[in-house]
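Batch job 17 of 40 flagged for manual review because the log was empty.
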Amino acid sequence: MRAAADRFGGIDVLVSNAGNAFPRAFEELTSDEWRHFMATNADSAFLGAQAALPHLKRSRGSIVNIAALWEPKWYMPTTFG
C-alpha cells in the first residue's frame, strides 16, 4: 500500500475482490484446504483494509468489498435432503 500511495500520490479506494471456491464437497475438505479458503476470502480483505486505512483516512476514500454468495448445489457435488 505504501508503495502504491507513494507512486500515485495517495490511495482513494480499495477494492477487495479476492476469492476462491471449495475444490470438492464441503464434508471432504481438509483443515488445510479450509484455512486456505479463509485466508484467501477473509484474511485478504481484512489485511488489505488494515494496510489501506491510513491512506484512505487522509484521502477520505472508500473500501469496496465484493463477495459472492456460495450455494452448495453450484460448487459441491453433494445433494442435501
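Reviewer: the log was empty due to a logging misconfiguration, but the result itself is present. The helical segments are 2-8, 31-59, 72-75. Unflagging and moving on to job 18.
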